[in-house]
Amino acid sequence: MERVPMTKSGAETLRQTLAYLKGENRHRIVATIEAARAHGDLSENAEYHAAKEEQGLNESRITDIEDKLARAHIIEPSTIKAEKVVFGATVELIDVNTGTEVVYQIVGVDEADIEKGKVSITSPIARAMIGKELGDVAVVQAPGGEREFEIQAIDYI
Asked: Which UniProt keywords are listed (predicted)?
């Protein structure tokens, strides 16, 4: 059984999503199904079939989240003492070609949000940074070709 790395805040977000899916969303879908049944013949009732499909997707998502939480390896970045980039690190990078500065935190797959500067542990940029130290250059295989980023700072906050 493979462990799923995630931060403490990522695990809490998954728990909140799970509570919503099991509670409010599940009840809303059941109400939609009941209302669609009231329209009569189920064999040609598009609303009923759409609601049943939504119910299946909701239950599938619940199962997926429960599985991830059961296999969770929760990591609190502030407790990490490392010189190298590892899961949970917040890394300040300089694009070698453009001089542009970017800051990313390496998080679990379900936590990734590029707009908030959070990249998945499985992303090309995270894979390129893992194991690197201050001053090292991370070479990222991007769709537009190779990009090089110099590591300016590594924090565990």
From this structure: DNA-binding, Elongation factor, Protein biosynthesis, Transcription, Transcription regulation
Domain 77-155 top-level CATH class = alpha beta
Q: Cα dist. 79→26, 66, 100, 126 in Å?
A: 37, 26, 30, 20
- Return the CATH number of 4-75, one of 1.20.1250.20, 1.10.287.180, 1.10.3720.10, 3.30.470.30: 1.10.287.180
Q: How many CA atoms lie within 13 A of 70 on its CB side?
A: 7
Rama region for 77: left / alpha / beta (φ>0; ψ in -120 to 50; rest): alpha
Tens of pLDDT along 56-70?
999 999 999 999 999
pLDDT digit string (tens) for 125-141?
A: 999 999 999 999 999 98
